[in-house]
Design a protein that fits this description.
Blueprint (H helix, E strand, L loop, with lengths): L4 E5 L2 H11 L8 H23 L12 E6 L4 E6 L6 H10 L5 H11 L19 E9 L5 E6 L4 E6 L9 E8 L9 H11 L7 E3 L1 E3 L8 E3 L14 E2 L1
Helix pairs in contact: 1-4
Length: about 240
């Protein structure tokens, strides 16, 4: 870990919430992707609204979209957006040190019903990532700050590091979910497509799925990102390969 890494303690209620999620036995774990796509859409909305009064905010990237990349070799699922991004202060405050108003209410509901599917309505949908991941990284770049990495394996704390190792995002956020060994199904192309079509049909931004395809001949594996619209209803989310 580099010398510019800082460690922060989670606010007590958030730490309790994460413990509840990490140790959960909920069947409907796929809702994590719905929540992270919804958050990405919100971030895209924010930069789009800003651009209405200040078009220059899009100089760091005019293409507003969500990209999903299953990294099978490393057991990592990546969800990337070109939204507003988060500053260092945003990462610290929004992802750990300031409790959301709905945290306690959500925990009480889950303990009573054993159902985590309503997590987004309580403003804590991000933490659903820990239904499927042992470790979560959030790489983010806001127009007003440098690029930073937020990282946590749940527990009591998280770290924030100035990013000197990853490719520049330009603007936006990239969430990397280091999946639990028994949940690698969420790296499968068909599984991802089914979840997106089931839960995220009303997202108004294009959703791209980037995956590796093997060709029969001895040709290097190539990553493809072809814009193939699989939804006839233009009001529904378009998942594009």
């Amino acid at each position: 870990m580099s010398g510019n890494t800082e460690t922060f303690n989670f606010q007590a209620e958030i730490s309790q919430l994460m413990s509840l999620i990490v140790n959960a036995v909920y069947q409907n774990k796929e809702i994590f992707l719905r929540e992270l796509i919804s958050n990405a859409s919100d971030a895209l909305d924010k930069i789009r609204y800003q651009s209405l009064t200040d078009p220059s905010v899009l100089d760091s990237g005019k293409d507003l979209k969500i990209t999903i990349v299953p990294d099978v070799a490393n057991k990592v699922l990546i969800i990337r957006d070109t939204g507003i991004g988060m500053t260092k202060a945003d990462l610290i405050n929004n992802l750990g040190t300031i409790a959301k108003s709905g945290t306690k209410a959500f925990m009480e509901m889950v303990q009573e019903t054993k159902d985590a599917s309503m997590i987004g309505q309580f403003g804590v949908g991000f933490y659903s990532a820990y239904l499927v991941a042992d470790e979560v990284e959030v790489i983010s770049k806001h127009n007003d700050d440098e690029q930073y990495i937020w990282r946590s394996s749940a527990g009591q704390n998280f770290t924030v590091t100035r990013d000197t190792v990853n490719e520049p995002l330009g603007r936006g956020s990239e969430i990397r979910l280091h999946l639990k060994d028994d949940l690698l199904e969420f790296l499968e192309e068909r599984r991802i497509k089914d979840i997106v079509k089931k839960h995220s049909e009303f997202i108004s931004y294009p959703i791209h799925l980037v995956y590796q395809k093997e060709v029969e001949k001895e040709v290097p594996i190539e990553e493809t990102e072809e814009a193939v619209d699989e939804e006839k209803d233009e009001n529904k989310a378009k998942i594009e390969e």
